[in-house]
Amino acid sequence: MKREIEIIEQLKNNIEDLVPVRGLRFRFELQPSREQLWRPDFLAHASFKNWQFRIVGEVVVQKSSSIFQDKIAHLKSYVGQNPNLVPIIIAEYLSPARRKQCKNAGVYFLDMSGNVFLEYESLYIERVGFPNRFPERRRGRGPFSDKASLILRAIFLNKERLWGVRELAELVNLDPGFVSRMARELEKRNYVVRSNSKLKLRDPQSALEDWVHEYDYKKNREFGYFCLRESPDEILDKLRDVNIPEKIQYALGLHAGANLASPYAVYKEVHIYVLNQDSIDFFVKRLKLKEVQQGANVIFLFPYYKHSVFYDKQKIKGLWVVSDLQLYLDLYNYPIRGLEQAEHLYEKRLKKLIKTQEPSCQKILKLGF
Q: ∠ CA(293), CA(336), CA(212), 5° rounding?
């Protein structure tokens, strides 16, 4: 609540610069009564020429898609009961995708970075394209960091289950105190709810949407090699012929893994997650690979998700593959047909982990931030 009040104060002090329309005046009113079940963050009275209108606003301070959607829904519901009010979302910065969400919902927006869209009668104000003036301060570990992501991975696999913190910590081999802190963050972002002190997944779609935009495939370290085979399928056939000892931990990722799970896009490179150089050396020797700077068709990855990348890995057609969730994270922003394969994988396999009974939870296609 403190940051919301700070942003409202910023808005009051800088409104003429943020909405530079001569003759347009704003007067901020007291917040609505606390006796209401839900109340907007502020009300304002606006005047321009002969027009007088009232604005109702919600302040967004978190990146959570779930909270953002709730803010819009509350505003629309409030305006539905008070049709003379003009609804607006306020934030330090709203990305193009968030601004589009506002427009699609019939809600206006204004951010402290200078982007604004407001309309009343023949008054039309739209200024966009201003960069974020409030880059996010570096925080501690969030729910999508390597170890913390084990919590989401576990509860995604059984979204209807109620989880105690200690049993969840034991399952994913994490400290209960750490799991408790991350649980509070997940609850704060509206991804989970508590019932009798236990956690239950509330909004898996928003959690996945936020996760895919925080995840960065490029943080993996790549090592390129060339295999004298004509196609990825031939490389995989050769890999199946190798007697791989248990100490060599590996899993196929990206297109190679996704095409074993649910074929769709044509691809040229086989990506293999490994944890150390010894594993690379093993495969180089058995597959007779040659290290190259260009033209690699076998790419080994040292994962930046080194604790969680192998969680829920699966054996498909004789080869280990990372989980469907990890495939989706890697492919979504991968430049070569990654999004197509990610969407196909979502429809065919991942949706059952994400879809809920709530009518608002539809398939995830092109997410944005």
A: 110
Confidence band of 310 (pLDDT split at 50, 70, 90): very high
User: What local confidence, expressed as pLDDT, does residue 39 receive?
Assistant: 82
Confidence tier at 136 by pLDDT (50, 70, 90): low
When pLDDT is averaged across residues 334-341 and rounded to a whole number, the result is 93
Whole-Å CA distances, 124 to 24, 54, 119? 12, 16, 5
Task: Please give the biggest Cα pair distance in the chain.
Answer: 82
From residue 27, how far is each of 33, 42, 53, 114, 256 by CA, in Å? 18, 11, 11, 19, 59
72 token code pair: 């819009």
260, 321 Cβ separation under 8 angstroms: yes
101 contact partners, CB below 8 Å, separation of at least 6 = 68, 69, 72
What token pair was written down for 343? 């969407």
Q: Domain segments of the chain: what residues? A: 2-127, 149-202, 217-354
Tokens of residue 43, six digits: 């009300």
Give CA angle at 134 (133, 137), nearest 5°: 150
Residue 206 has pLDDT above 80, yes or no: yes
Q: Report d(CA 239, CA 225) in Å as an integer.
A: 14
User: Residue 317 phi/psi, 5° resolution?
Assistant: 50, 40
Q: Find where tokens 């880059």 sit.
A: 135
Collapsed DSSP state (helix, strand, coil) of residue 269? coil
* pTM listed for this prediction: 0.74
The yes/no answer on whether domain 149-202 falls in CATH 1.10.10.10 is yes
Give the CATH number of domain 2-127: 3.40.1350.10
Scan for tokens 């403190």, then name that residue.
2
- CATH code of 217-354, in short, is 3.30.460
| Of 251, 222, 262, 256, nearest in space to 236 by CA | 256
Give the separation between CA 338 and CA 327, rounded to whole angstroms.
10
- Residue 218 sits at φ, ψ, to 5 deg, of -70, -10
Q: CA 288, CA 275: separation in Å to the nearest integer?
A: 20
- What is d(CA 328, CA 330) in angstroms, rounded to the nearest whole number? 5
The amino acid at 301: L
Q: In sequence order, what are the beta bridge partners of 5?
A: none
Q: For residue 219, what is the DSSP state?
A: G
Q: What is the mean pLDDT of the chain?
A: 89
